[in-house]
Backbone:
């Protein structure tokens, strides 16, 4: 299939383009958010092909993957030369995020569309978003295995938060000083410089994460973070808030999951102090990640849906 999708979420798209299709990635001269093109810090196969707007209007497209409201509201139709997603070309709306609204106002922008399918990345998101009559599907994350790289040589904790300062309470950035009372913390992620963080390419990021004794996931309200799954794949023990999908994704033996700060702090302190316990928990985390978030299962789920809608 020829699948048109915008480069919106680098880590998720890196997994998606590992499939057996041709992936058409919009690009413009400025490499703007609506024309970012191929990733520069992730490894993508040659089947992920950049297309300009002019090229896209002249290309046969089998399926469109929409990911943002303005793609549904006109951007995709413009790039497709007037062809309407869902009506003229099969389309799927991929929702990466948990809803950001009062519980009664969590209506999805693609609600009540019988010509689309909304795909959620967690069961939590599917439960909370109001999609009306639009069919929904849950396809959980999958990632290419980065390998068991954990050394835990540094008695410190790794945290990955993109745009940590801007996102604040949503990502639990405000909780970091309290966690630093329990253990030293190294913050990584795009836009983390304002908080003395470090932005690294994915390969280097995995290497540096795996050197830390534990992984901290202070996120209050987002979808299940791919950085958390990557940490588990690396073999890192996890300390995480029991919010959104985390409580189901991280088994008890993989670390500490709670909403009680004193338990999270004591768990982090214990893991950083006890290298043997940390390594054992990290092995459990890796087993859980491989069982639930394998790339083959992920691509198989997507292939089944694409065949269904195309």
Residues:
């Amino acid at each position: 299939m020829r699948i048109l999708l915008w480069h919106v979420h680098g880590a998720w798209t890196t997994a998606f383009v590992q499939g057996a299709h041709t992936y058409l990635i919009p690009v413009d001269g400025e490499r703007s958010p609506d024309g970012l093109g191929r990733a520069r810090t992730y490894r993508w196969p040659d089947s992920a092909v950049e297309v300009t707007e002019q090229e896209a209007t002249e290309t046969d497209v089998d399926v469109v993957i929409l990911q943002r409201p303005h793609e549904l509201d006109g951007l995709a139709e413009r790039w497709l030369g007037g062809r309407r997603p869902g009506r003229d070309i099969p389309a799927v709306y991929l929702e990466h995020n948990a809803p950001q609204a009062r519980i009664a106002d969590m209506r999805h922008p693609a609600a009540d569309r019988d010509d689309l399918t909304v795909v959620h990345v967690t069961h939590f998101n599917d439960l909370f978003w109001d999609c009306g009559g639009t069919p929904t599907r849950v396809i959980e994350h999958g990632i290419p295995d980065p390998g068991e790289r954990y050394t835990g040589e540094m008695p410190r904790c790794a945290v990955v938060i993109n745009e940590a300062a801007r996102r604040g309470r949503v990502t639990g950035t405000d909780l970091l000083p309290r966690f630093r009372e329990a253990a030293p913390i190294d913050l990584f992620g795009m836009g983390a410089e304002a908080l003395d963080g470090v932005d690294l390419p994915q390969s280097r990021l995995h290497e540096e994460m795996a050197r830390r004794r534990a992984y901290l996931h202070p996120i209050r309200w987002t979808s299940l973070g791919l950085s958390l799954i990557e940490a588990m794949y690396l073999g890192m023990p996890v300390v995480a808030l029991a919010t959104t999908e985390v409580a189901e994704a991280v088994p008890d033996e993989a670390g500490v999951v709670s909403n009680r700060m004193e338990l999270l702090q004591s768990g982090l302190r214990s893991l950083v102090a006890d290298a043997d316990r940390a390594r054992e928990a990290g092995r459990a985390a890796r087993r859980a990640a491989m069982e639930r978030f394998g790339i083959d299962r992920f691509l198989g789920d997507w292939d089944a849906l694409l065949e269904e809608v195309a």
Residues 154-292 form a domain with the Rossmann fold fold (CATH 3.40.50.2000). The chain has two domains: 2-142+295-309, 154-292. The mean pLDDT is 95.
